[in-house]
Amino acid sequence: MPLAGTFKRLGAATVAAALFILIPAESPAESRAETGYVQTHLLRQLYTSGLARMAKGDPQGAADLFRLAAEVAPELPQMHFSLGLAKLLADWQRREEALPSIDAALYADPPNALYGAAKVLADPALSRLGADGALHLTPEGAERLRAAAAALGTERTAVNGRYLAAVLSAARASGDAEFPLRLAGFDRMIGPGGTIRLPGWPASQPFGRLFAAAISDSELQAYEPRLIARLQEGLYSLSPENLRRLQMRARSLNAREQRSAAAPLVTAELN
After folding, report:
1. In a domain, 193, yes or no
2. What is the pLDDT of residues 3-19, one digit of tens each?
3. Residue 200: how many other CB atoms lie within 10 Å
4. Stated pTM of the model
5. Same domain? 114 vs 199
6. Containing structural domain, residue 28
């Protein structure tokens, strides 16, 4: 898809931030003639921007970024999982639409506790949101959630696994054979702005932040040429003046993104 189409889907501000290190300081012609296309970490920037939006309580904005990342790197289960999780939290009423992405992640990495927990939340056969605001789990859903919570603390993909495990472990027996496990206050965790209070933290945290999935730079770098190929045609068709404006806007937006809460929800003493 040319850059114009990407701008239309994601919005100029999002793409400008993502393109920050793709845009060379000199003119496009000079850059290509002297050095070829510059070394970039564009996919990392896209993925980090998606995590930042999740950390701000904006799962819909995150889904727009994760969707492009998943299209570029469909072999990476973290991309499918992140897209599915963002869709799930953005619109609970249509949570089934998150299942194909979450199932794709689980197919690639079946024992992953992070993906397993998301599956329980997304699948109507495993859980439902009750009128009391609690998440009610079927016997199978309860079994899967307990297993995921027990494994999250050591799941390397789960950046904030220990915190998510603590939240999920707070589910209690309901006395209802049809839905034997109940996670209270779940309605406050989902949707745009959904948050959770964590022990020892003065402020509530966006629930989606607890699901951040780790991925190495080396894994991402292999897909960089694909993403650049989708963007470079439109990028280099811009006039020099528009390129300069985009570069200035990208620097400003990138700085704001880096100051956001995309980092793991840990402090030195909690590591």
Report:
1. yes
2. 445 444 554 444 544 44
3. 7
4. 0.78
5. yes
6. 1-76+215-271
